[in-house]
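User: Here's a protein and a ligand (NAP). What would the complex look like?
Assistant: Let me lay out the input and then the predicted complex.
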Amino acid sequence: MNFAFTSGELAELGAENLCDHDSVAVPPLWATVSTVPFKGAGRPHCRALRGTQVGVPPHPSEWNLGLLPIPPIPYPLRLGHMASIPQLTLNDGHHIPQLGYGVFRVPPADTERAVFEALEVGYRHIDTAAIYGNEEGVGAAIAASGIRRSDLFITTKLWNNRHDGDAPHAAIAESLDKLRLAQVDLYLVHWPTPAADNYVHAWQKMIEIRDAGLARSIGVSNHLVPHLERIVSETGVTPAVDQIELHPAHQQREVTDWAVASGVAIEAWGPLGQGKYDLFGAAPVAAAARAHGKTPAQAVLRWHLQKGFIVFPKSVRRERLEENLDVFDFDLSDDQIAAIDAMDPGDGSGRVSAHPDEVH
Ligand SMILES: NC(=O)c1ccc[n+]([C@@H]2O[C@H](COP(=O)([O-])OP(=O)(O)OC[C@H]3O[C@@H](n4cnc5c(N)ncnc54)[C@H](OP(=O)(O)O)[C@@H]3O)[C@@H](O)[C@H]2O)c1
């Protein structure tokens, strides 16, 4: 099987990272088409590329060079698609795509397919963690995608039993190996586990990991204001992000207010409430969705984006991957945002996971 790409697509994909199989001749009609060696034709991503027809191939009379029809790459991999996902600037000057794809509870055996599909659909930001057990699948999908490393934003996390001594250094080495990367874009302390009283040490190790170039940005997850204040005051280094449970029923205003005042970006995990309560049937969500001809999930994701939160909804279904990305062509009104703001009971009862002080 032969493939050809326009020079712009080649630049986007990084030809040297693609699979190698055959070289292709350049059909005369396609003066701008370049040839590219195509590796590993039997691998899943190659099959995926093969199945997709985008654009108009040259008339067969123009490519009688023994070539098969040339299917251009699927549209999400085409030049310019990333422009539709906003990038936020972190307090260390690096950028992060505001919408990504999270892989919590994506089974390890399914992860390469799911992440490859997400990349195909257009996601460029992947959120995983050592404890999810699926970093290998993320790494395999990244390698298979042929997408330039600089176009991807990859996050992983330090698990709770690796805070002591030099364990964080061993943990990041293992994660990078599984992800097949030299550096992650963001490395997070997954939970503070305050009962062990070791999260300041873990944060100091994260600073070393960043300084060693193994993580471009560092941050924390599930840290509440007392944890945040302590790591900042004891190390002098403010995390780039805090990734916390956040959705309409649990808006964590104390943490978000602190983060805004301190220049820390908020990543909202469980942005769809993990499907654990009837978020989509709630009147403010349903009304906002109806008003814009969108699904309730899209209305909720739009609420997050307009509040300035970073989100990475998880789904193992391609149609939902597409649905969750299709949130950049409408704006909720101030009233619609205020109605969703009012959904938090304010007493913590909307939380779908454990309180961070109770996670060990
Ligand atoms: N730092 C932490 O402690 C922490 C904790 C939890 C999660 N996270 C991160 O945050 C990411 C997202 O959170 P999450 O996975 O817990 O929950 P979530 O994204 O809020 O919800 C995922 C659930 O919603 C369903 N879903 C997805 N899109 C949908 C749509 N358009 N319509 C209806 N249902 C939809 C999924 O089902 P299907 O898969 O069947 O579509 C799945 O059951 C995780 O994957 C992980 O990366 C971090």
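Summary: Residues 159 and 190 are 6 Å apart (CA to CA).
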